[in-house]
Amino acid sequence: MPRYDFDLFTIGAGSGGVAGSRRAGSYGARVAICEESRVGGTCVLRGCVPKKLLVYGAQFSDAFADAAGFGWTVSPPSFDWPSLIAAKNKELDRLEQIYRTMLKNSNVELIEGRAIITDAHTVEVAGRTYTADKIMIATGGHPTVPDIPGIEHVISSNEALDLPELPRRIVIVGGGYIAVEFAGIFRGFGSEVVEIIRREDLLYGFDDDLRVALAQEMRNRGIEIRARTQIARIEKCDIGYSVFTTHGQEISADLVMYATGRKPNTHGLGLTEIGVEMNQDGAVLVDEWQRTTVPNIYAVGDVTDRLNLTPVAIAEARAIAETLFNDNPVKMDHADVPTAVFSNPPIGTVGLTEEEARREYREIDVYSARFRPMKNTLSGRDERTLMKIIVDADSDRVVGCHMLGPDAPEIVQGLAIAIKCGATKKQFDQTVGIHPSAAEEFVTMREKAVRPTKLAAD
Question: Which one of 3.40.50.1820, 3.30.390.30, 3.40.630.30, 3.30.365.10 gives the CATH number of domain 339-443?
Answer without folding.
Answer: 3.30.390.30
